[in-house]
Amino acid sequence: MHIGQITIKLEVWNPLHKLLTKYSFSIAEQKNMKVLHTEITRRLNSYISFLERDESYFNSPFHNHPELELVYVREGFGKRIIGNKIEKFAAGDLLFMGSNLPHIWINDQSFYQPSSALRAKAIVIYFNKNVFGKAFYDLKESHRVIDFFKRAERGIKITGKTQKILAEKLEEVVLKKDFEKIIGLFEILHILSTSKDCEYILSDVSINNELCEDTDRLTKVYRFMWENLHENINLDKVSEIASLTPQSFCRLFKKRTGMSFLEYLTRVRIDQSCKMLIETDKTIAEIAYRCGFKTVPNFNKLFRQINGKNPKAFRMDVSLK
Full-prediction pTM beyond 0.70? Predict the structure, then answer.
């Protein structure tokens, strides 16, 4: 992607190691950035998810998803891309993003230094608006929330007193359990939908629609992949699910993600194995097979290629933090 005289390559899975210097993109430029379409709530097996992120740097790819998303940055700074807009972000930022709005958070170069002690921390709420059901949207009392969801297709930054109030509420909500979390979400949505402390990020929602071409065709493929990660997933099967020939599927997948389907599948399997290494005490062999790797040596080899260390060292490093 070219911005003026500067050439910037946005890798789908790797962090951006160059500072961005211009604050908007054309639609043509954005299409070259390869929006990765995913379904967050299906991956997390919950229609409403409350997450606390604590990482060396934010490492999600440039992506979109059908879920609405509320992000509160606890620690970290850098630049974010939302739709065709690039802006700086810092601790305290609070954003609400509507369905299928492409975005990525890129920390400052200092976060990627080997000796860096900086952390990227955030509270994130994902939820699929369909979880509330038709009856909810038919209520006259819900009209402000419905309108807010529509406005959020352009991305909304929350400022002023509302930002301070919601930052405190989010810190409280992540500590709650069970249905108390849902009550907290409703309180937050009420505050958002009635607040005037809201700034649009995008000037035109049509940019969002342009970027989402072809993603629906691949949605079933992503779903099948996540639900059958432990199985043998082959090109013929996923091409059939996408209603394409293998050749056409490979071209489309490469266009949308910037990598081959096999490369993408391997990355997803390695990411899932990292999650299991952190969150469970299962053996490395069991994790390898559950993530779809046929042999432990092959798993170790691919894991090292992607993460720079073997699974055992990765688990030890995480346990020491």
Answer: no
